[in-house]
Amino acid sequence: MTVDPSIIVAVVGAAALVIGTTITATFTRRSHRDTNLRADLSELRERLDASDRRLAASERRERIRDDYIHQLRSLLDEAGEDVPPWPEGLTTA
Fold first, then answer.
1. pLDDT at 9
2. Is 29 left (phi over 0), alpha (psi -120 to 50) or beta?
3. Which residues of the chain have pLDDT under 50?
4. How far apart are the C-alpha atoms of 48 and 57, rounded to whole Å?
5. Which pLDDT tens digit goes with each residue over 3-29?
6. How many other CB atoms are there within 10 angstroms of residue 25's CB atom?
7. Separation between Cα atoms, residue 62 and residue 68, nearest integer Å
8. CA angle, residues 62, 64, 67, in degrees to nearest 5
9. Nearest Cα residue to 10 out of 73, 77, 41, 18
10. Residue 77: CB partners within 8 Å, gap ≥ 6?
11. Predicted TM-score of the model (pTM)
């Protein structure tokens, strides 16, 4: 039994086509996944930067508020007024 060489060429060609298509599809999926991961990472970095800015602004307001409270307490003390005790949450770390 002999096999026609054109059939062998056709089978090898079809196999190469299937393998090539599979490899291309795999790389395309990976490329899309990488693109999505990069976009997610970029979004997370932006959110982290926004959180850092909000935290810094909050800490700045807290320092300003604390300075103001200390000034008011000092003025009350200098005027001989009773200075109310610190709230419990502000006296412990």
1. 85
2. alpha
3. none
4. 14
5. 788 888 888 888 999 999 999 888 888
6. 10
7. 10
8. 105
9. 18
10. 83
11. 0.58
